[in-house]
From TrEMBL:
Leader sequence residues: 1-21
Taxonomy, superkingdom: Eukaryota
InterPro entries tied to this protein: Invert_lysozyme
Name by which UniProt lists this protein: lysozyme
One record GO biological process: killing of cells of another organism
Biological source species: Amphibalanus amphitrite
């Protein structure tokens, strides 16, 4: 079976040949909003400490997320093998792919609305994989300034694309 991509409500579903499981990846609009929420997509942000972790680049990528992405996708690891964590975090293409693969590795219905959407990826980005298993952490992530910026960006993108908001039930059931 050939590989295929299907875009569903801000999420790209990757059907890989010979792979029985679906991989959910944030689409390019979701990635742009995640970047906007993290740092206003500033290319000069460098590295800083946040909540006890070093985060770098416009996506505020953690070393742990970079390692998860490299482990989850060998093609990504091979394509960007010449970039260490900090260099990848500062490279827009590498950072976007790292974030995408790290989020796909932990994709889950974090807000318990029956769908996996960009908002779930936002909760994962802000609260880490534990936020999807812990409703208190998920709520804290969803109540953050980061999440408010993400939601505003997603509404702006929806308006710019001239698409109605996804109807209830649109998306992938978790």
């Amino acid at each position: 079976m050939p590989s295929a991509l299907l875009c569903v409500c801000g999420v790209v579903v990757l059907l890989a040949a010979g792979c029985p499981a679906l991989r959910l990846l944030p689409d390019r609009y979701c990635l742009a909003c995640l970047c906007n929420a993290a740092s206003n997509c500033s290319p000069r942000i460098g590295c800083q400490q946040q909540r006890g972790h070093t985060v770098c680049g416009p996506f505020l990528l953690t070393a742990d997320a970079w390692r998860r992405a490299r482990k989850a996708d060998r093609q990504f690891a091979h394509r960007f093998r010449y970039l260490n964590y900090r260099m990848c975090a500062s490279d827009p293409e590498c950072a976007a792919e790292a974030v995408s693969h790290a989020l796909a590795h932990s994709a889950s219905d974090c807000d318990r609305d029956g769908r996996i959407t960009c908002k779930d990826f936002g909760i994962l980005s802000r609260g880490g994989p534990a936020a999807c298993r812990n409703s208190t952490l998920a709520r804290r992530a969803a109540d953050s300034d980061y999440f408010r910026v993400l939601e505003g960006c997603l509404l702006d993108v929806t308006a710019m694309l001239g698409e109605p908001s996804p109807p209830a039930g649109c998306g992938l059931s978790a």
